[in-house]
Here is the input.
Amino acid sequence: MIGVYTAQSKTDTETPILARAVFHNWQGGEPAPGWLSALARLHKGYSICWNPLQKPNFRSRETKASIRKKRLISRNEKQAPLFAEELTERSLQSDPEYYAAKTERDFMREEFIREYKNEYEEFMRIEGGSNGQT
Here is the structure.
């Protein structure tokens, strides 16, 4: 597994990441590099974070909308089987954007996934075939 240790600010949003160390073939329990820990200790408010670098999972808007509708129907059928159709119809009418996966949060998540995917691809391009730590 490829992962990234970062010295990350707990409060500063302008420059949240102080340093990064990328690991290939990471085994659970490996400590952060000493230089990264020392750097975080020098700067108050920084902590060491471990983030596995995984290929992003992206669902299309249509797939997300379909899943939301299926879960709504299933939930209504479990809670009130006699009124499931009516409750489902009311829910779909009361919040059509949510069940069409067109909310502001959905758009923000898509943007986040695009940025994460670009970062992942950049790491894979730079760190490509090397093993060990960089």
